[in-house]
Amino acid sequence: MPTHSRSSWCLGGAVVLASLALAVVAQAEPSPAARETARSLMDRGYERMKKGETSGALEDFKGADAIMRVTSTGLAVGQALEKLGRLVDARDKYLEVARVPPKPGESNQIRDARAQADKLQGQVAERIPSIKFEVAGLPATVQPTVKVDSEVLDATTLTLPWKVDPGKHVVVGSAAGFNDLALDVVLAEREQKTLTLTFVAVPKTALLPKQVVKTPLLPPPPEKHGFSAFLWAGIGVTTLGVAAGSVTGVMSLGAVADAKANCPGNVCPETERDTIDNARLLAHLSTGSFALGGLGLGLLGYGLFDSGVFGGDRDAKTAFTVEPLVGPGSFALRGTF
């Protein structure tokens, strides 16, 4: 190919590329309405900054920067972030602005914003605190998972200083077979803190799912019934009453026979008065003893009922009382049940 033709072709290609670049720039250039919107957002943002409404100002600056994408709007976003204490995000924005390449014919405002952002990013970098982690209690084969404010740290950088904003942060650590950790840490500007994460092995039994053992319902054991105390009392009282009644009855009959032998025609001399009185007393005692035996029979019957012999219920509450009856020349017992 001739040299003249080759040069003409290269010159023509350069012109085409230049035209395409200008077309792209012209297409990316915001419209007058968009630029006016960005100006109003910047003005309102600065007014909010003066009033201390930094969060609202940040939203205005972000809106203007999304439209214009110039160093002046980016610088305003970084300044609002720094004012809010979000130093990590502020430095990142400052660096973004400082790295915007210069353009031919750019204004002094654009150039000065780039230089100011580069200066501020260095100042903010010195104020950002950091956390350095130390891990204890884990074997070398176990790698923990550590989160700072829900952001997972890379395992290779775990022992290196991790940059965070000033203020309170939540650190969460976990490892298979070990207890989970949750720690709160507060850092001031420029502070460098070392935080030790101590893991403790969880017993293997605690890792197993809990098993619920169902115990079968067994019927209650049958109630054991013994002989009622009334039964034994009835036997005792009956035996005592019959025995005493029999003995005193025999003695009374003997005394009466003696008195009759010494009292012809049923006329007794004064010397037999004691014998007659003794016979009467023995007769009364015999009667009372047999009455006591009758009461014992009642107790005996109730005791049989209370012991369940006749199907009675031992749990039934029954009042039982015994009342002695003493009169002139007589003795008796009265019971209720």
> What is the arithmetic mean of pLDDT?
79
Distance between the termini: 143 Å
Arrangement of strands in the largest sheet: 3-2-5-6
What is the chain-wise order of helices and strands? HHHHHHEEEEEEEHHHEE
- As a whole number of angstroms, the C-alpha radius of gyration is 58 Å
Supply the number of structural domains.
Answer: 3
Structural summary, described in words:
The protein is built from nine helices and nine strands. By secondary structure, the protein is an alpha+beta fold. It has three domains: 30-127, Alpha Horseshoe (Serine Threonine Protein Phosphatase 5, Tetratricopeptide repeat); 130-207, Immunoglobulin-like (Sandwich), CATH 2.60.40.1120; 229-336, no CATH class. The strands form three sheets. The chain has a four-stranded antiparallel β-sheet, with no helix packed on it. Strands 4-1-7 form a three-stranded mixed β-sheet, with no helix packed on it.
